[in-house]
Amino acid sequence: MASSDKLIALDFDGVIADSIEETFFVAYTAFRQLHSRAFWDIDLTYEDFDTQKSVLAPLLKEFRRLRPFLRVGEDYMLFLKIIHNGWMVRTQQDFDEIKKHNTHEMPAYQSAFYSTRKRCQNSAPNDWLKLAPAFGIILEGARKLADIYPVIIATTRDELSTRQLIDTYEFNVEKIISKEYNRCKREQLTYAAETFRVPLQNILFVDDQVDSLLITADAGVKSFLATWGYNNDDQRSRASKNGVDLLSAHDFYLTLYALMVAE
C-alpha cells in the first residue's frame, strides 16, 4: 500500500452491502418476539426468501422505500409497524413524527434487533450472510482502492456483523468504526483523522444518508452521496443543493482514485 496523507472512508449498508433482506429478516424476527399477536401471523425462515417471493415482494418493496428515512438500527422495526398499520410516510418529517410518538418502544426495539441479529449470525451464519450481498461493482472498486490506499468503514451497524460480512466479501480494510464507538459520522471521521493522522479535509467519505453527509461536509470532509444506495430523489436534490457531490456506481472507483492521486 502506498503511503498517503489522504483516507477513504466508506459507509457500509447502502454503499458496500445491499442489506435489505438481512435487515428485514432480523427486524421481522425481532418484531414478532415483541408483538406476536399484533403482527402478520407467520414466522419467517431463510427459505421463505426463495419459496415465498410473491408474499414477501410487496413487503420488501415497501421496506426498501422506507429505508432512506432510517438513521439507526432500531428504526428498521418501526418500518414494520408503519407497514403493518398502513401509515403514510412520504418524507423524513413524516417518519420522524411517527418515531417521536413511539419513543417508548425504541429501547426495546434496539435490544431486540441487535440480540436477534447476533442469534442469526451464530445459529445459521451462512444463511444469514446470503441475505446481505455486496454491490458487485462497488466491491470490485473498493478492493482495488484498498490495495493501494488506506480504506476504512464508518458505519452505524454493529462491528461484529460488519466484520463478518466484510470478511465474507474478502475485502481488507484498515479499520471499522462502528456504532459501538459513536453513531455520529462526524465523530467517527474525527476519530479516523486522529488515528490515521490526516486532516479532515483529506478524507473522502461516501455515504448514502444525506443528513450524515451534510454534517461531515460542514466539517470539511469531501463528502459524496452514493446514488446506488438507500436514498430518494428529494434527498439527492437536497445533497446537491448543499455542496455534497452525487456519486454513481459507475463513477465510484475512478472518481475516488483520481482524487487520491491528485496533489
Walkthrough of the structure:
The chain contains 13 helices and 6 strands. With 263 residues, it is of the alpha/beta class. A 6-stranded parallel β-sheet has the order 3-2-1-4-5-6, with helices on both faces. It starts with 6 loop residues before the first strand and ends with a helix.
How would you summarize what this structure contains?
The protein has 263 residues and is an alpha/beta fold. The chain has helices at residues 20-34, 48-51, 53-66, 75-85, 92-100, 106-123, 125-130, 136-148, 159-168, 185-196, 210-218, 233-241, 252-261; strands at 7-10, 151-154, 175-177, 203-207, 222-226, 245-247.
Count of all domains: 2
Instruction: State the helix count.
Output: 13
Query: How many strand segments?
Result: 6
- Can you tell me the CATH architecture of the largest domain? 3-Layer(aba) Sandwich
Overall SS class: alpha/beta
Q: What kind of sheet is the major sheet?
A: 6 strands, parallel
**Structural Rg:** 18 Å
Task: State the main characteristics.
13 helices, 263 residues, alpha/beta, 53% helix, Rossmann fold, 6 strands, six-stranded parallel beta sheet, 2 domains
